[in-house]
Specification:
The protein is mostly helical. It is built from nine helices and two strands. The protein has helices spanning about 5-20, 25-35, 40-55, 60-75, 80-95, 105-120, 130-145, 170-185, 210-225; strands at about 5, 100. The protein binds adenosine-5'-diphosphate (ADP) and magnesium ion. Adenosine-5'-diphosphate binds near residues 79 and 211.
């Protein structure tokens, strides 16, 4: 795969809708422990709405497509996570405006813009036990993959890099998904400082954050689409 085209993004969103529908109860159980038991339902509703509207969306401009998805999520997910996921996709879309496809550098920049938007809107920092704790490490992994010297220059065997010896987009996305998984799992011992879970104070420790977990599922779906 070269870059992430509008068709690939659409394939990702379809896969994400399937995954979130399948994992709806899991996410809702996580939210039952430290929130109000709706995160899985919220996310499945939002991405089902995105899937229903995908056919009518222009895929020629990846930025415009991501922005539209942000608007749909904003109006359908609800809860605290709706505006935050809406912001993530909207800000990523604004950064990618006019792009026919995204290479690794563009995707890293786009997701970083989304992360910055989420942090601005939700005022969460790393370690606050939110989706930022999965998204942040994923963005870091993409940026690190981008900066990694070509395998040949580092005296390593070429795979899993692209033809030019640099880390391929698919490999970088696999690493980003893995970083998000580790980030989501690392929220377990944390005490929540933002959102509904923060009302529990110390009692929020010992549970995995639902939003960080859905963020990981989205990135795992993206990596699987890039690899397909
Ligand atoms: P609600 O908490 O309103 O019921 P959801 O259950 O859909 O909304 O989403 C909860 C998730 O939203 C949390 O697990 C957390 O990851 C994320 N979240 C909540 N508040 C913030 C915030 N201020 N910044 C970033 N993420 C947040
Ligand atoms: Mg909730």
């Amino acid at each position: 795969m070269q870059g992430l085209s509008g068709d690939r993004v659409a394939a990702w969103l379809e896969r994400a809708a399937d995954v979130l529908e399948r994992e709806k109860m899991y996410l809702t159980e996580l939210d039952a422990a430290i929130g109000d038991s709706d995160h899985g339902i919220n996310m499945a509703r939002g991405f089902t709405a995105v899937r229903a509207r995908l056919g009518g969306l222009d895929r020629g401009d990846v930025g415009a497509l991501l922005k539209e998805v942000g608007m749909i999520l904003l109006s359908t997910v609800g809860g605290a996570s709706g505006p935050l996921y809406g912001t993530l996709f909207r800000e990523a879309g604004l950064r990618a405006a006019g792009a026919g496809e995204l290479d690794l550098a563009a995707l890293a920049s786009c997701l970083e813009a989304g992360l910055d938007g989420v942090k601005r809107r939700g005022k969460a920092s790393p370690g606050d036990k939110t989706m930022v704790d999965a998204l942040g490490p994923a963005v870091d992994a993409l940026k690190a993959a981008l900066l990694e010297p070509p395998a040949a220059a580092a005296g390593q065997a070429p795979p899993p890099s692209g033809a030019d010896g640099r880390v391929s987009l698919a490999e970088a996305l696999a690493r980003a998904a893995e970083a998000a998984r580790a980030g989501a799992e690392a929220t377990v011992p944390l005490v929540a400082r933002k959102g509904r879970a923060s009302y529990l104070g110390e009692r929020s420790a010992g549970h995995q954050d639902p939003g960080a977990t859905s963020c990981w599922l989205l990135l795992r779906s993206l990596a699987a689409t890039a690899d397909a």
